[in-house]
Amino acid sequence: MGKLTEAEVQTAAGQQQAQLKEQGKPVAAEGKMSAVFPSYARYDLALVKGKGSWVWDDQGNKYLDFTCGLAVTSLGHAPEKVGAKLKEQIDTLWHVSNLFQIPGQQKVAQLLTGNSCADQAFFCNSGAEANEAAIKLARRYHQKVKGDDRYEVITFEQSFHGRTLATLTATGQQKVKEGFLPLPAGFKTVPLHDLPALEAAIGEHTAAIMLEMVLAEGGVLEVQAEFLDAVVALCKQHGLLLIVDEVQTGMGRTGKLFAHQHYGIEPDIFTLAKGVASGFPAGVMLGKGYLREAFSPGSHASTFGGTPLATAVMAATIETMLEDELPQRAAEMGLYLTGLLKEKLGDTPFVVDIRGKGLLIGIECKQPVSEIVLAGQKRGLLFVTAGPNVLRLLPNLYVSKEEIDQAVDILSDLIHTYATQANGEAGA
Ligand SMILES: *Cc1c(COP(=O)(O)O)cnc(C)c1O
């Protein structure tokens, strides 16, 4: 079949819409993906193929991907070593219940605990689910092991912890909570870096403090080391658990395998998801050995958590990261990328700040930047935002200097053009 003309596409879409209307079914305004709940603001791009740093759309256009499924495909698209293990496991065993021994879980748990301060792992399927497990473990530890009436979790403004009812309540952004009342009890949110507010929020029911090392969705904001030290001290003083959400910052992204390792701290619990399985759905909650008995048999579960298929992909992903020293590579390439951005954009008044850790990078601008993202797509470069005024760059950890050069050329072009336009409008 040949390509449809624009008019034919319009007619086909129109006919489909009329048909849906006739059947009494909902009709989406855009006519695309009308059978899917419109809970995402989607770009008008359908990506159908990927390899390494590059993706292709359904029209055959090629893009340099500095998005990586939002920090998910950290080994690049369709990584061969991981793909080979996935194919091997597909022909062996996909799924068994957690009623049985799953050797893959022990292997992944040992890879993760052997390279961190944690001793135990719980497997699930997403970041929200990993954080949910962390919150449950913290409550259960206090209530069942220590015999405390502690259940409250303190989190920070601008944080992001997920979209389940508990994790959206933990999230420090009003927009994710609208229309979902009543929210579960047991959460408090205080401003980041406000020590008096944090101290005032701690009470007899406080069980844990949860935070990201770099607030990624919140604008690529790094937690100040002195503040983090104070948080650790408060946890010690009041017997609280420290939960670090490493869903976006974990798995090498920031230049260490786990971001908290930059600061020499040891969280009681930390959570992983995005980069842990190269795009296969997987989440992990990791904790210290003294928390072990809090999750006694029957206390928590997940049908799809840590299946033979998922653990094969996780193991291959983690082994590849360690073998190829990707955290170190992320640190080096991150310095190269931010250095280049500062060189090309540092003097532009439109750019407020260029910051980041490893290959989690934010460019804060004076005005909303969503149009720059769209203009980037037209130039063949994919990146996203982190809040209204911050551009976020998340290349894969194998990204080359040539690819970085290419991306920075396009970006600085886009930003200079946009800044000139914005200036013109402001002056007019
Ligand atoms: C993406 C993200 C989550 C939620 O992960 P899902 O897999 O979408 O549930 C939680 N915390 C942080 C820091 C994230 O970036």
Automatic annotation (TrEMBL):
Pathway involvement of the protein, from the record: Amino-acid biosynthesis; L-arginine biosynthesis; N(2)-acetyl-L-ornithine from L-glutamate: step 4/4
Cited PROSITE patterns: AA_TRANSFER_CLASS_3
Molecular function GO terms recorded: identical protein binding; N2-acetyl-L-ornithine:2-oxoglutarate 5-aminotransferase activity; pyridoxal phosphate binding
Organism domain of life: Bacteria
Catalysed reaction, written as an equation: N(2)-acetyl-L-ornithine + 2-oxoglutarate = N-acetyl-L-glutamate 5-semialdehyde + L-glutamate
GO cellular component: cytoplasm
Cofactor comment text: Binds 1 pyridoxal phosphate per subunit.
Obligatory cofactor(s): pyridoxal 5'-phosphate
Entry EC no(s): 2.6.1.11
Subcellular location: Cytoplasm
CDD domains xref list: OAT_like (cd00610)
Modified residues (N6-(pyridoxal phosphate)lysine): 274
Residues that bind N(2)-acetyl-L-ornithine: 163, 302
Enzyme class: transferase
Family membership: Belongs to the class-III pyridoxal-phosphate-dependent aminotransferase family. ArgD subfamily.
Summary of subunit composition and partner proteins: Homodimer.
Designated name of the protein: Acetylornithine aminotransferase
Species of the source: Paenibacillus donghaensis
Gene: argD
